[in-house]
Specification:
Length: about 200
């Protein structure tokens, strides 16, 4: 049996996150700093297997044309702006009355795990827009399987996303690309048996 990593012994990043949160209590880029430092801590603690994913070999596999094209992650400005938008979005989702009318969603919100949730969603966006592969959570179908989410609730979240993207002046092309990316996961997230 292989020995558990320090990351695992620290309860999957919760304590790392708590440490980082304590360290960064001031400044405009709190969540960006939190995510960047958390990602570094996770990488260091999980060892060479995670580091291999960042090997430049992956970039060399791209065709020259693809390599020249900037990823959505790059066009969004990287982890700091992404983390700032997730920070804003999640704060509003947690107090959204329509979403909290769903008991399974409310139960999660009542646990008050916003900080860790923001890290998860930030890393998911980073990875799925072409940034570093840091996402350590469940695939979206498994993450939402127990939540009984309706199409209407998905629409509410999309609406809140759009509000955040406007607030942060995300350019039209990048906003369209982001909204299309999120929309493509609708069938994995909407798990309600009957449409409400
Ligand atoms: C494309 C849209 C969505 C994306 C990209 C997304 C992303 C995520 C991610 C990355 C996680 C963390 C999974 C993990 O910790 O393993 C998560 C969990 C969660 N999501 Fe979503 N989500 C989306 C739509 C929604 C919608 C529409 C709702 C409805 C309110 C929702 C509510 C939740 C809740 C409550 C959790 C926590 C589940 C738990 O800890 O038991 N999500 N989501």
């Amino acid at each position: 049996m292989t020995e558990a990593t320090l990351y695992e012994r620290l309860s999957v990043g919760e304590k790392i996150r708590a440490f980082v949160t304590d360290t960064f209590t001031m400044g405009r880029c709190i969540l960006g700093s939190l995510c960047a430092v958390t990602a570094v801590a996770v990488l260091l603690l999980t060892g060479p297997a995670a580091a291999e994913e960042k090997s430049p070999a992956a970039a060399e596999e791209k065709s020259p044309a693809a390599a020249e094209e900037k990823s959505l992650y790059e066009r969004l400005g990287g982890v700091y702006p992404i983390a700032a938008t997730v920070d804003d979005l999640v704060d509003r989702l947690y107090v959204n009355g329509t979403l909290n009318a769903n008991p399974a969603v409310k139960a999660v919100h009542d646990r008050q795990g916003q900080a860790g949730f923001k890290v998860m969603v930030t890393n998911w966006v980073v990875e799925h827009t072409g940034g570093p592969k840091n996402y350590s959570g469940l695939p979206l179908d498994k993450a939402h399987a127990h939540l009984n989410i309706t199409n209407r609730e998905f629409d509410v979240v999309m609406n809140e996303c759009a509000t955040t993207f406007y607030k942060f002046n995300v350019p039209k092309k990048e906003m369209d690309d982001l909204m299309a990316l999120l929309e493509s996961y609708r069938s994995q997230v909407v798990t309600a048996v009957t449409a409400k």
